[in-house]
């Protein structure tokens, strides 16, 4: 099953570019609010699997918003691929990876224009993002997938000057400028994948591939992340978990490379879809 946020309304995606409005199709049983569905996830899945749906209506990708636009918590994991930890000059973490947040004001849908912060060095990080479906607190690795509503594509856009300045790194602020957390194009439930623990992901700038990896190479797999993070705090329905990025970011290149006005960044995860960001100058 695929669900999306189409112009602020929850829809079931029924084809490559067709969707059914959930509030109308359910006769008002489920709200149009794309975030509210995660609070009733099991009930919604049961309805969606049995519902007789009308024919889908055609939509444009540019009208899609974030599949989970107002999470209570966004957890993002750093240094979760060995080759990316190495290019960043850090040791591979043990026990718990570094965790930061992307503040919710940075969240957007899949097709956007992003203003590059003045005086900054803005970098790309394609990531698999999980959306929590049912509260996960102190769950085992074996039970972890049952708490996941689905998967989506994310970009952990990162302004490196602000992120790495000062006596201690400012991961959360450097990664939370407006538009720095595009997600989408929709949420795909785990049962749709042959192996949800082994998905290809990558991104390209102006058609030139800069990152390509597989989620089987995560240092902490999604079930391990959910188990270890939920040992500390409850993960709530509708929360986002950015799982980390593979090698190929601009920070790790010689010479280093940053996003520039006019660049187009296309990011994908196999079996889900793609994000498309265009960059402009001008943000102060
Ligand atoms: Zn990241």
How much strand? 25-35%
Helix content: 10-25%
Unreliable stretches: none
Number of E-state strands: 19
The CATH homologous superfamily of the largest domain is named Fumarylacetoacetase-like, C-terminal domain
Ions, cofactors, ligands: which are bound? zinc ion
Radius of gyration: 18 Å
Structural class estimated from helices and strands: alpha+beta
Profile the largest sheet. 12 strands, mixed
Shape, principal axes of CA atoms: globular
* Mean model confidence by pLDDT: 96
Overall CATH architecture of the largest domain: Alpha-Beta Complex
SSE order in H/E notation? Answer: EEEHHEEEHEEEEEHEEHHEEEHEEE
Q: Kindly provide the name of the CATH class of the largest domain.
A: Alpha Beta
Q: Kindly report the CATH topology of the largest domain.
A: Fumarylacetoacetate hydrolase, domain 2
Account of the protein in words:
- The protein has 284 residues and is of the alpha+beta class.
- The strands form 3 sheets. Strands 1, 2, 3, 4, 5, 6, 7, 8, 11, 12, 14 and 17 form a 12-stranded mixed beta sheet that branches.
- The mean pLDDT is 96.
- The chain has 2 domains: 2-59, no CATH class; 65-283, Fumarylacetoacetate hydrolase, domain 2, CATH 3.90.850.
- It has 7 helices and 19 strands.
- 15% of the residues lie in helices and 33% in strands.
Chain-wise SSE layout:
Blueprint: E1 2-6, E2 9-15, E3 18-21, H1 22-25, H2 41-50, E4 57-58, E5 64-65, E6 74-77, H3 82-88, E7 99-100, E8 107-108, E9 111-117, E10 122-123, E11 126-132, H4 141-144, E12 148-155, E13 158-159, H5 160-164, H6 171-174, E14 181-188, E15 200-205, E16 208-214, H7 222-230, E17 240-242, E18 264-269, E19 273-283
Parallel strand pairs: 6-17, 8-14, 9-19
Antiparallel strand pairs: 1-2, 1-5, 1-14, 2-3, 3-4, 6-7, 10-13, 11-12, 11-17, 12-14, 15-16, 15-18, 18-19
């Amino acid at each position: 099953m695929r669900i999306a946020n189409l112009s602020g309304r929850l829809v079931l995606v029924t084809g490559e570019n067709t969707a059914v409005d959930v509030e109308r199709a359910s006769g008002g049983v489920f709200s149009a609010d794309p975030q509210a569905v995660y609070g009733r996830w099991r009930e919604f899945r049961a309805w969606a699997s049995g519902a007789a749906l009308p024919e889908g209506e055609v939509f444009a990708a540019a009208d899609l918003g974030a599949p989970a636009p107002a999470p209570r918590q966004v957890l993002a994991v750093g240094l979760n691929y060995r080759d990316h930890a190495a290019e960043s000059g850090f040791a591979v973490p043990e026990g718990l990876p570094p965790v930061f947040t992307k503040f919710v004001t940075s969240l957007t849908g899949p097709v956007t224009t992003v203003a590059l912060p003045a005086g900054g060095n803005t970098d790309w990080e394609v990531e698999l993002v999980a959306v929590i479906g049912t509260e996960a607190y102190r769950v085992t690795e074996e039970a972890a997938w049952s708490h996941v509503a689905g998967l989506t594509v994310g970009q952990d856009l990162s302004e490196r000057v602000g992120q790495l300045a000062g006596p201690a790194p400012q991961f959360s602020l450097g990664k939370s400028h407006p538009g720095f957390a595009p997600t989408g194009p929709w949420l795909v439930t785990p049962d749709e994948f042959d192996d949800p623990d082994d998905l290809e992901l990558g991104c390209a700038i102006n058609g030139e591939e800069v990152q390509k990896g597989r989620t089987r190479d995560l240092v902490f797999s999604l079930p391990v992340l959910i188990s270890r993070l939920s040992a500390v705090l409850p993960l709530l329905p509708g929360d986002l978990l950015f799982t980390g990025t593979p090698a190929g970011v601009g920070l790790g290149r010689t010479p280093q490379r940053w996003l520039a006005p006019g660049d187009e960044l296309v990011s994908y995860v196999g079996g889900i879809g793609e994000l498309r960001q265009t960059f402009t100058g001008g943000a102060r």
